[in-house]
Amino acid sequence: MPAIDWPQVRRILVVKLRSIGDTVLSTPSLIALRRQAPQAEIDILLEDWVAPVLDGFEGVNVISMAPGLSERLKTGWYLRRRHYDVAFNLHGGTTSTFLTRTSGAKHRFGNADYQYSFLYNHLLSSPADFWGRKQLHSAEQQLALIGYSGVGVDDLPKSRLAVTEAAVTNVSTTCGGGWVGDNFALLHPSTAFETKQWSPENFAGLAEGLVGRGLKVVAIASKAESGVLDEMKRIANVPIATFDSLTLPEITALASKARVFIGNDSGIAHMAAAIGTPTVVIFGSSNRTHWRPWTDAPNEIVYNPFDCQPCPGYKCEAFGDSRCIHSVSVEQVIAAADRVLGAARLTAIP
Predict the structure, then answer these.
(1) What is the pLDDT of residue 180?
(2) N or C: which end of the chain has fewer CB within 10 A?
(3) Spatial contact of 75 and 97, defined as CB atoms under 8 Å apart
(4) Is the pLDDT of residue 328 over 90?
């Protein structure tokens, strides 16, 4: 294990050039680093479109990078001028590797299987070696690299996000006071791949079941995915409030008010879990061990096991019709929602 004089560390860089879920699941590593080096400045480098997910996260400076070669070069020069003592690459891609090296940090940490691994001076053989087991969550994989540097990670910090006052105000204005702070379930019926997409018909049936339990229903998606919201509203026999233009901080604020979040495996699900909302995630092709909610809040994943799981998810090679996700019933998801809502009531402070 490398010998780092942590009390003397002034600046730390964490590189995480990935998606929403990956960013949320990097927060346990940020928490562990902050505990280890309370005196240090901690910067995290994110892609600009995902950077707002960490708005308000205490003790960390967010550096956002726009796409394009010129922006990467500009970012590299900025990192160089920061004079980091320690840098961690939690991503492993080519761009993040070169930016980590460009930072000039004295101690540069990466995994041995990273491409261009010679650009690091501290290499972890593998996260599996660090933990002594092969089945790992994404958060554990990232924590392994932090732990390899001598930072305490054995307590496995959970993911965490902040709710900003500005986002709460904006959500109250956009969604209307009748929904925010009220008794509602938040649904996210879209996702990146068909093999992870529970149908709008199923989400409509879920909404009907939730309304039958006395909950209002709010559903969110991006502008590009608004067709899923329209289809769900068309089929459902109950009112559903839908929003397709919320920012990432606004989604966090809205999720913090929900009684329960239910959605496909996606970054939005990780955001809800990180804010402590009881969460139900419907799984199809994804690796459940690797991507399940990383939270102490009540949560369940709903799935039907298939021998072909997990798979890359781009298309269904085994059946051609994404049978894994399509086989999950409305009744299964409602039953899981009942259980997490019951667990939330039991753990609530009177």
Answers:
(1) 54
(2) C
(3) no
(4) yes
**End position of a domain, from candidates 102, 123, 148:** 148
List the alpha helices (DSSP H) in 149-292. 165-175, 200-212, 226-235, 248-257, 267-274, 288-291
> In this predicted structure, what is the pLDDT of residue 330?
96
Six-digit token pair at 63? 């550096």
As a whole number, mean pLDDT of residues 159-177 equals 88
The answer to whether residue 34 sits within a structural domain is: yes
What's 307's DSSP letter?
A: T
- Domain containing 270 equals 165-347
- The answer to whether residue 121 is domain-embedded is yes
Measured at the CA of 159, the angle between CA 156 and CA 163, to 5 degrees, comes to 150
Q: Which two tokens stand for residue 24?
A: 């949320």
The mean per-residue pLDDT over the stretch 59-85 comes to 96
Q: Are residues 89 and 123 in the same domain?
A: yes
Confidence class for position 77, pLDDT limits 50, 70, 90: very high
Helix, strand, or coil (residue 13): strand
- Quick check: is 157 in a domain? no
CA-based nearest residue to 263, from 251, 247, 250, 246 = 251
Backbone angles phi, psi at 246, to 5 degrees: -75, 145
Structure pTM? 0.94
Q: What phi and psi values does residue 285 have, to the nearest 5 degrees? A: -80, -15
- Cβ(307)–Cβ(329) under 8 Å? no
pLDDT at 347 over 70: no
Contact 124, 130 (CB under 8 A): yes
Residues 311 and 184 in one domain: yes
State both tokens at 159: 């993911």
pLDDT band at 350 (very low <50, low <70, confident <90, very high): very low
| Residue 129, in any domain of the structure | yes
Q: How many domains does the chain have?
A: 2
pLDDT, residue 178, reads 54
Domain shared by 169 and 142, yes or no: no
